[in-house]
Amino acid sequence: MSLNPRMRVLKNFGALSLGRTLGDVLTFLLFVVLSRIYGEEGTGQYSIAMALTGFFAVGVDFGLYSFAIREMNLPENRSPEGRRRLLGQVFGLRLILGVGAIIVLALLLPHLSVTGSTSTIILWIGIYQVFYLLFDIFMTPFVAEEQMTVASGFELGLRGVIALAAVGLALQGADLETVVAVFPVATLAIGVIGLGVALHRFGRPTPAELFGSIRQTMQSSKDFALYVFLRQLASRADIILLGFFLGAISAGVYNAAYRIVFMFIFLPYFAGISLLPQATRLFESEDPSFGPLLSQSVNAILILAVPLAAGLWTIAPELIALFYGSEQFHDSVWILRWLSGLVFLAFLKLILGTFLTASQRQPERVRGQWIAAIVNVVGNLILIPTIGLIGAAITTLVAEAGAVIYYWYRLRGFVPTLGFPVFLIPTAFGSAVFVVLFGWLWHPPLLVVVLLSAAIYAGLVFLSPAVRRQGIPFLLSLRSRTEQ
């Protein structure tokens, strides 16, 4: 029994997001432990190291993950041999780029204006990022075949081992340099297991497949590589510039709030990865359900995006106090409230961007990311020195909004059915009610706020005519088609 496209997307999203969300929870808890043990300065060192090495990781990533998934779903590459060939090509390119990135990082470190301990942390995290990308690419054929549980299990296993080992060392009193050294070691151990599973399933690429098409692969994936670089620039320029202008402590205070938001903005990333194989096949086969799938995906993501953003704003003080302690990180509260809007924008941006990629319009996705990157860098250069941390948060929101508007405009050009998202009004109304009630009028315990907000939101959204008219029949159609 084959599932209809929408049900398969939901199934894939559930399988992929479960493991990766649990992995993100473990990573976030690790960040909380590090913040509490090593304080604002240690948090700042860790944050700057992650942001800086992220740019080296982008050079290794080269957009090959999404590129490989899309290419593996084209008709000429759907056979096991075609996927093995593509896997060899992208891994060979990443291997060369990874070795080069580690060499460049090692040569650059002595010339950075950082302390010796920060330099060591940067090196360990840089090696970890390269190892992760080398092994992560072996999960792409499983995602292309919609075997999401394999990729999900790899992610959960890796994040879990890193978090448990690092927390154990931190609690035993190890310094931060020793704690982050476990990152590349654990990645190498779990990565070898993932490599074995992939080679057993798809076969071992030949030397010609690994290194015979390096230039061609780079040429074909250049738009994906540029997009990943611009995304990194747009999302992490704030941390680097905060460290430059205001110091490591300010970067740590800002990143404490961002890490909470980051927990949620990865959900649409998983949804996008889950959608990409199916959306690519629908577009390539000129299936008329491509447009409706886009509209339904946008409406469905709003059901999560709007209340999550509103909920983060409402309980920001309680979350900061719970995770970090209100004394050291009290300035993170208003940063989190500003950045809560990023959840809404990131959900929309990633879903819209996925459909641009699926429809062979990756250059359009890159142009939108150019908008975000330019606004982010210029805005941070102007606002951080003048208004500080809040300036970085405002710049991030404006940059992401610009990209969302551009993506929507480009998709409307060839998907006329993409109209106003009808679920926006009821989801916004349902969220506004609990924001007013618990953000200003009543302040019960955190658990009570979460439970009552969820109940109020669900009740008001369910009462909406738009949801009853379109959302409920949509869910029933999934059930009836699954039973066929």
Explain the layout of strands and helices:
Layout: H1 5-61, H2 64-72, H3 80-108, H4 116-136, H5 140-144, H6 148-171, H7 176-202, H8 207-211, H9 214-220, H10 222-245, H11 248-284, H12 290-314, H13 316-323, H14 332-358, H15 362-387, H16 389-412, H17 424-441, H18 446-462, H19 465-483
Task: Please explain how this structure is put together.
The chain is mainly alpha-helical. The chain has one domain (5-421). Helix content is 85%, strand content 0%. It has helices at residues 5-61, 64-72, 80-108, 116-136, 140-144, 148-171, 176-202, 207-211, 214-220, 222-245, 248-284, 290-314, 316-323, 332-358, 362-387, 389-412, 424-441, 446-462, 465-483. Helix 1 (5-61) crosses helix 4 and helix 11 (248-284) runs parallel beside helix 14.
Task: Tag the structure with descriptive keywords.
single chain, 484 residues, mainly alpha, 0% strand, disordered C terminus
Question: In summary, what is this structure?
Answer:
By secondary structure, the protein is an all-alpha fold. It has helices spanning 5-61, 64-72, 80-108, 116-136, 140-144, 148-171, 176-202, 207-211, 214-220, 222-245, 248-284, 290-314, 316-323, 332-358, 362-387, 389-412, 424-441, 446-462, 465-483.
- The helix/strand class is mainly alpha
What portion of residues belong to β-strands? under 5%
Number of strands: 0
Estimate the mean pLDDT confidence: 83
